[in-house]
Design brief:
The chain has about 140 residues and is mainly beta. Helix content is about 10%, strand content about 35%. The protein has 2 helices and 11 strands; from the N terminus they run βββαββββββββα. The protein has helices spanning about 30-35, 130-135, and strands at about 5, 15, 25, 40-45, 50, 55-60, 65-70, 75-80, 90-95, 105-110, 125. A hairpin with a 6-residue loop joins β1 and β2. The radius of gyration is 15 Å and the shape is globular. It starts with a strand and ends in a 10-residue tail after the last helix.
Length: about 140
């Protein structure tokens, strides 16, 4: 996959990232919806991505952190902090980039998706229970 160049809304943060695979994902969990006022659309970034500028991080759960621009508040990424195989996996906000060249191939927390949201085409869809089982999380609400 080619390296992508992106930036936040105000341009204060620039991001360079290479997608790990040719796929976008959308998360409908309560926290992603609150953070974006919609759903968070991301791609998994290869290790070695770079972000320059006023980046702030927020520990949003026992197993993840979220990053945003300290100037304009644009969502930058979601990173797994939970020990294990997925530790450090970073989901880069797709909206930072002009074009990712990827199609939407996964929807997470599909059972939390508001009725008015709809995408065309087919993709893998995972429920809250399926996502949390993948991360081996306790069943205590949206843990994102």
């Amino acid at each position: 996959m080619p390296e992508l160049q992106g930036q936040c809304m105000c341009g204060a943060v620039t991001v360079t990232a290479t997608p790990a695979r040719d796929a976008l994902g959308a998360c409908h969990c309560d926290q992603c919806r609150r953070w974006t006022s919609s759903m968070l659309v991301t791609f998994e970034a290869e290790p070695g991505y770079a972000a320059l500028g006023p980046v702030k991080t927020y520990i949003s759960s026992d197993w993840a952190e979220r990053a945003f621009c300290a100037e304009c508040g644009s969502s930058l990424w979601y990173r797994i902090t939970l020990p294990g195989d997925m530790h450090g996996q970073t989901q880069m906000a797709a909206g930072l980039f002009e074009e990712t060249g990827s199609d939407l191939k996964l929807e997470l927390y599909i059972d939390k998706k508001p009725q008015g949201y709809a995408f065309t085409g087919e993709r893998r869809q995972m429920t809250k229970a399926e996502v949390e089982a993948m991360y081996a999380l306790p069943d205590e609400g949206d843990s994102q």
